[in-house]
Amino acid sequence: MTPMPVERLSAAEASAEHARLGNEIAEHDKRYFRDDAPTISDADYDALRRRYEAIEAAFPELQTVDSLTRRVGSAPAEKFAKVRHSVPMLSLGNIFTDEEVVEFFARVRRFLGLGEASPLGVTAEPKIDGLSCSLRYERGRLVTAATRGDGFEGEDVTSNVRTIREVPARLHGSDVPAICEVRGEVYMGHADFAVLNEHQKDAGERLFANPRNAAAGSLRQLDPAVTRSRPLRFFAYAWGEMSALPAKTQMGMIEAFKRFGLPTNPLMVLCRSADEMLKHYRTIEAQRATLGYDIDGVVYKVDELALQNRLGFVSRSPRWATAHKFPAEKAATRLLDIEIQVGRTGAMTPVAKLEPVTVGGVVVANATLHNEDEIARKDIRIGDTVRVQRAGDVIPQVLGPVIELRLPGAKPYIFPQVCPACGSAAIREIDTKTGEADVVRRCTGALICPAQAMERLRHFVSRRAMDIDGLGEKQIQEFFAEGLIKTAADIFTLEERDRAAATKLKDRERHGETSVKNLFAAINARRRIALDRFVFALGIRHVGETNARRLARHFGSFEALRETARAAGEAASEARAELNNIEGIGDVVAEAVADFFAEEHNEEVLDRLLAQVTPQPLEAVASRSPVSGKTVVFTGSLEKMTRDEAKARAEQLGAKVAASVSKKTDFVVAGPGAGSKLDKARELGVRLLSEDEWLAMVAEK
Ligand code: IVH
Q1: What gap in Å lies between CA 200 and CA 188, rounded to an integer?
Q2: Do 267 and 191 fall into the same domain?
C-alpha cells in the first residue's frame, strides 16, 4: 500500500502517524542497538525514518523535545548477566472494590478455618509504582542485586544498585541473618523526576513518560556512572531466601529491615478487620497526591508468617496477599479505526486504533474493544470521540462513545464475518448446553490461517512458555513471513537448515554473526524443557499455565499425557474420565485436550517437535515427601484444616488430589461422615488414613 502523500495529511492524521512511526522506530533502534537483533532491513528502516522526518518537516509543531530527530548517540550493545532467583519473585492478584476487600478477608478466614472469635491481622501499605528488585546480603554485605525478570530469572544490576544511596552496602544489627535476601521497589520521586526530565530536555535527550519508566531506564543502564547520576530510591517490603527469620510477623519483618538500616514505608499499619483495611486504603488514597512518589494502590498481607505459609500460593500469586488498586484513569480521544486481531485459537478481537492520548502519564494509541457484542451494545462507531480507561498494567479499554460529539454520517460498525487474515468464515460457536452463541467470533481456518499459525508460534516462544531469547515477536514474524519457520518444530531445525542454505542468516542484512550464534545457542538451550512449560507452550485451548501444571503433575511425562489424551476422544471413555478427574480440570478443558490430540496435524507437528525437544518431568516440589507423586482423595469432614488447605498442601508436596476414588488412588484421607468414597476405597483395597495420620505423613521434617 502506498502511504498518503505527506502534504495531504490532516493535522490529526499527521500527529497519529508521527506517534506511531516514533514508536516503531524506537522499537527498531532498541532491537538493533540493545538486543543486537534487528528485524527489518536497512532500506526499510531508512524509509520509516524518511517518512517520519518528512511529516515533521510539514508539521513542525510535532517536533517536540522527545522527537527521534533530536536524539543523538546509540544505546549500548552489551547485556546484563542473568541471575536465577533462589526463591521466585511472584506477583500479586488485583482487587478493585470494597466488596472484594471484604471477600479477601473472608476467604482467608475460610481457608484457614478460623472461627468467629479468632482474630486475624492483615497489614496494609502503599503499593509503590516502581520496579521490584531483590537484594542479596551475605553476612551483612550486599553481594547481588537483581531485577524481577520473569519471576524466576532476573538481570544482574548489582553495580547499579550499589550507586543508590538509600540501599546500604552493609546491614547493621546482631540479628542480621547470614543470608538475607531483601525485596522491595526501586522508584523515583516526583521532584527528582521533574529535575531529571529538565536535564534530559536541556541535553536534547528523550523525555521519560513517567517516574516508573525513568526508574526502570535508570536502573537498567549499562554504565553505573549514569545510574549514579539518577536519583533512585528504595523501599523494602518483602524477602526471598533467609537463613533465619528475624520475626514471626510481616510487621515484625519490616521493623527488622528498618533496624538493619533499610528504608521501609512509614504508611504500613496492622488491621484487624476488612473495615480497618478499607479505612487505611482511604487514608492512603487521600495522601496520594502529596506523597511525592507514585503509588497505584494498597497491598494487604496476612500478618502472621505461619498463616502465610499455610495459605501458600495459587499459580503466581500468594493467597495471603493482594493489591487493592486505585480506580483507573480516564481520557477522551478519537477512534480512528477498528482493527481485527486474530488469536492463536482463531478468536477475533477488535482493537481500537486511537488518536494518541495521555492517560495517567502514558500515551495510549491502542485499546481493546472486547468483542462484537460490546461494540454493538455501546454503539461505538469509527470516527467517534470515545472515553478510554487505563488501570495499572492492564490493557487500556474503550468505555464508550461521547454521543454528543458524534459526527454526522457516522455509521454503525459492522463486525466482519470472514477472517481478515485468511478469508475463512468466522463464526460464533453455539454452546450445546445453553444454546447461546459464544461472545467470541472465531476464524474457522484453523490450519490454513496464517494469523493463527503465527500466533501459535508467538505463544510457543513467549516468556512463560519456551522463552527463547532473541526470538521475539518481530523476529518470529519475519521468519514466518519468509517461510523459514512455519511450525514450532522448524525453530529447532533452523540451524541445521541454515548450514545447508545458500544465503546464510549471518550474511543477511542486519543479522550479525554474533546475533545468529546467540540465537542458535538460545534455541539449543531449550531442547530440554520443563514438562509444564512445554504443555503450556503447545497452546491447547483452555490450557493456561495452571492447567498445564496440573496435567504435567498428574501424568509426569509427556508420553503418558499423550497416550491418555489420544484415548480420550469419546466423552464416555475411561481416558476422558481420568482427565476429568484431575482436580481443577473440568469437562471443557478435558474435551479441549482430547480435541487437540485428535487433530492429525497437531500430532504430526508434535512428532517432529519431540524429535528435537525433550520435555523434562516436573520436578516434584518436595520430592522427599512420601506423598509426592501419589494420588489422594479427601472425604468426610476434616477437623484440623479446611478442605482447601488440605488440597493446597498436598499439591505443594507434589501429590495429585482427585475428586473420586479409583484403582489409581494411593490414599483416601477419611474424616467423620465419610460415605460412598470410603466404601469404594475399602472395596478397592486403597490405603485409608485418618486426618492425624495424614498430617504426620505431610509434616515437615
Ligand atoms: S509484595 C509475594 N508489597 O507490586 C508478593 N509488592 O503486583 C511480593 N509492589 O512485583 C510483593 N509495592 O513490584 C509488595 N508494598 C508492596 C509493593 C509491591 C509495589 C509491586 C512489586 C510486585 C508487584 C505485584
Answers
A1: 15
A2: yes
